[in-house]
Amino acid sequence: MDQNLQMYLIVLFLAVVVISQALMISTTGTRAKRSRLLKQQLEYIAESGNTNQKSLLRKQYLDQLSATERWLENNPLGEYLAEKLSLAGLEWKAYKVVFWLMVAGFGASLAVLVFTLNLQMALLSPLAILIGFSLWLRSQAEKRLNLFEEQFVEALDVMKRALLVGYPFTDVMKTVSEEMPPPVSTEFGKTFVELNYGVDLRVALTNLAHRNPSVNVLAFNSAVIIQKETGGNLAETLEKLSEVIRGRFRLMRKVRTLSAEGRMSAWILMLVPFVLFLILYISNPDYISPLLESERGSTVLTVTGISMFLGLLWIRKILRIEV
After folding, report:
1. Does one domain contain both 213 and 282?
2. Is residue 243 within a helix (H) or strand (E), and if so which, with residue range?
3. Which of 76, 122, 173, 220 is deepest in the core (most CB within 10 A)?
4. What is the pLDDT at residue 41?
5. Residues 247 and 155 in one domain
6. Could you tell me if 200 and 283 lie in one domain?
7. Total number of domains constituting the chain
8. Which DSSP state fits 64?
9. Which DSSP state fits 29?
10. Which residues of 308-319 are buried (b: 16+ CB within 10 A; e: fewer)?
11. Is the separation of the CB atoms in 91 and 64 below 8 Å?
């Protein structure tokens, strides 16, 4: 395979990755910024709780492992990867994921080197495996969180009915974990276990929001904590909260529908130059070769790439609508 074509395919892959991540306007892009703000607020909420209780489930998980597994799992990389796997709803051990990623990267490098005899492509193969896995993990976390938010509204209704019957708050969490499907049942079940172990309510609710970084969960936490400190009708508050969340979902769907044409236009505008370049390169290589071989052609490609990147940022800013 020609070296210029190989470089073009690498650039095309990176462009598709950048475009796909930049144009997730209604989900990933907005939520990433919002999650950082949520974490700051959650740390403030949990200040009055016992900090030694925050990782109770993590400690319980580590205690079930062998000494070797605990050594491999209990480190900054293991904790970071375990958090990402938890957000994606995967019950995988972090050290095993790292091991299989290393095996997959080595296998991909060896296969590329055998079939293409290109050392550069072989060295880039593990990076492609890592990027692909990261994007897949991010996508799984996004799907899980979207499903959790959809079920969370129904969970609020279940909690309201349980409170009206007269259940205490701990039994209300247990009721949700038994009557609702996962992932919301799993998350409320973890919160119920923490409360049973004696974890402070603030810390337990903060852990729930850390595992599910959502504005809706933060509003629920605030309502429960305020009711605990000042009193009030929690069932009525949860009913109003569920109505607000349903209205927000309706608005988000409307925004997503109205912005669909803009997102599709962005995809077309950004991918057409790459597709046209590939067609010309395959059909008439001599016609496109001056663009790749001459100094002026390299300058044109550089300016074009910078202009396309700036255009992508501008389109992203236009389509970004906070709900």
Report:
1. no
2. helix 234-258
3. 173
4. 55
5. yes
6. no
7. 2
8. T
9. I
10. beeebeebbeeb
11. no
Which of residues 192, 221, 253 is at a domain's end? 253
pLDDT digits (tens, 9 = 90+) for 121-149: 788 888 888 888 988 898 888 889 889 98
Residue 181, classed as helix, strand or coil, is: coil
CB 209 within 8 A of CB 221: yes
Buried/exposed code over 76-112 (b: 16+ C-beta within 10 A; e: otherwise) = eebeebbebbbbbbeeebbbebeeebeebbeebbeeb
Query: Could you tell me if 145 and 231 are in contact, meaning their C-beta atoms sit under 8 angstroms apart?
Result: no
Q: 251-255, 264-268, 310-314, 315-319: lowest mean pLDDT where?
A: 315-319
Q: Which structure tokens are listed for 56?
A: 């109770």
CB 238 within 8 A of CB 159: yes
- Residues of the domain holding 18: 1-48+259-323
213: region left, alpha or beta (phi > 0 left; psi from -120 to 50 alpha):
beta
What is the length of the chain?
A: 323
Q: How many helices (H) and strands (E) does the chain have?
A: 15, 0
| Percent of the chain whose pLDDT exceeds 90 | 7
Mind giving me the DSSP string for 197-226?
A: TT--HHHHHHHHHHHS--HHHHHHHHHHHH
Separation of alpha carbons 271 and 254, rounded Å: 26
CA 250 to chain CA centroid, nearest Å: 22
Distance CA 90, CA 199 (A): 24
What SS3 state is found at 74? coil
As a 3-state breakdown, the chain gives helix, strand, coil percent values, each rounded to 5, of 85, 0, 15
- Rounded distance, CA 27 to CA 40, Å? 20
Q: Are residues 301 and 265 in the same domain?
A: yes
Of residues 148, 147, 118, the one with CA closest to residue 9: 118
Q: Which residue has the higher pLDDT, 130 or 68?
A: 130
CATH number of the domain within which 230 lies: 1.20.81
Residue listed under structure tokens 């200040």: 47
- pLDDT at position 82 over 60: yes
| CA-based nearest residue to 244, from 256, 255, 252 | 252
